[in-house]
């Protein structure tokens, strides 16, 4: 295989292999992604059960790491005993972050803001105590999320706003607080012109890429179950938006990933 046809190297920083449907086995999806250039993957915990599954996947698949946490929509399930178990899971050598945590305005009817904020603060404390980055979910809740972050002592490693879809002002609000921004297949959507306009403004060393699989399949796979193998489409779209050669952009993102997760890949 020549360098012209070699696949671009990529790292999926936010995936949910354990949530893939039965017809898309995690191990097979992982192999397909490796064939397309996948270097590594972080599987994200969203509940106690999925956090356990993420650690198990990271122990069984090479090049896979895990995070543990409770999604804001599940914040009411974070009891003292479950927080203790999360704390124990964080001790796994394959765990490289805390979350998915954050705030989600769409869930506030079912999970009130104060419940989400209490869970978020518990995750912030866990990340700070273990010196790990936070994996932040934010849907139409940047102002209250920034307010919580500003009122807490954060891990020196801060964290990432995953699947970023906010405004320019929200992007720089996150960047100014020391966070990374991660972009998903949404950047390939026809409706995401404003997001593509923001991409060239983001410092090159503060960008990560993700699939958020099995959700948010990029063009041309919309309507299908998303897989890590589809991340090159997102990488290409981001490189085009930034007017950068895809290979040099891909290498820059790998450097960012190494720094962010403190892993050797």
Architecture overview:
The chain is α/β, with parallel strands linked by helices and 265 residues long. The chain has one domain: TIM Barrel (Alpha-Beta Barrel). The chain contains 9 helices and 8 strands. It has an 8-stranded parallel sheet with strand order 1-2-3-4-5-6-7-8. Helix 2 (48-60) runs parallel beside helix 3 (80-90). The radius of gyration is 17 Å and the shape is globular. The mean pLDDT is 96.
CATH topology: TIM Barrel
Helical segment count: 9
Highest-level CATH class: Alpha Beta
Into how many domains do the coordinates divide? 1
- Major sheet: size, sense and barrel closure? 8 strands, parallel
**Order of the strands making up the biggest sheet:** 1-2-3-4-5-6-7-8
Label the CATH architecture.
Alpha-Beta Barrel
| Average pLDDT | 96
Could you spell the SSE succession in H and E letters?
Answer: EHEHEHEHEHEHEHEHH
CATH superfamily: Metal-dependent hydrolases
Question: Shape from CA axes?
Answer: globular
- Name the poorly predicted regions: none
Quick overview of this protein structure:
The protein is an alpha/beta fold.
Task: Give the key terms.
265 residues; alpha/beta; eight-stranded parallel β-sheet
Layout of SSEs?
Layout: E1 10-15, H1 26-35, E2 38-43, H2 48-60, E3 64-68, H3 80-90, E4 95-104, H4 113-130, E5 134-139, H5 142-150, E6 159-161, H6 168-176, E7 180-183, H7 193-198, E8 207-209, H8 231-242, H9 246-261
Parallel strand pairs: 1-2, 2-3, 3-4, 4-5, 5-6, 6-7, 7-8
Helix pairs in contact: 2-3
């Amino acid at each position: 295989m020549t360098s012209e046809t070699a696949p671009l190297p990529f790292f999926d920083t936010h995936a949910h292999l354990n949530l893939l449907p039965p017809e898309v086995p995690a191990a097979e999806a992982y192999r397909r992604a490796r064939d397309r250039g996948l270097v590594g993957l972080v599987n994200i915990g969203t509940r106690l059960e999925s956090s356990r599954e993420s650690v198990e996947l990271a122990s069984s698949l090479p090049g896979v790491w895990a995070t543990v946490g409770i999604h804001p929509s599940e914040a009411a399930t974070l009891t003292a005993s479950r927080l203790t178990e999360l704390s124990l899971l964080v001790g796994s050598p394959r765990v490289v972050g805390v979350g998915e945590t954050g705030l989600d305005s769409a869930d506030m009817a079912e999970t009130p803001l104060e419940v989400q904020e209490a869970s978020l603060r518990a995750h912030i404390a866990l990340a700070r105590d273990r010196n790990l980055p936070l994996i932040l979910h934010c849907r139409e809740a940047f102002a209250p999320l920034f307010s919580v972050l500003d009122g807490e002592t954060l891990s020196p490693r801060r964290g990432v706003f995953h699947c970023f879809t906010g405004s320019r002002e929200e992007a720089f609000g996150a960047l100014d607080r020391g966070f990374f921004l991660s972009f998903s297949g949404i950047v390939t959507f026809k409706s995401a012109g404003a997001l593509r306009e923001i991409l060239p403004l983001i410092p090159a060393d503060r960008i990560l890429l993700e699939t958020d699989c099995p959700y948010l399949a990029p063009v041309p796979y919309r309507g299908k179950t998303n897989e890590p193998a589809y991340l090159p489409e997102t990488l290409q779209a981001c490189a085009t938006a930034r007017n950068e050669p895809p290979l040099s952009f891909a290498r820059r993102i790998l450097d960012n990933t190494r720094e962010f997760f403190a892993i050797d890949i």
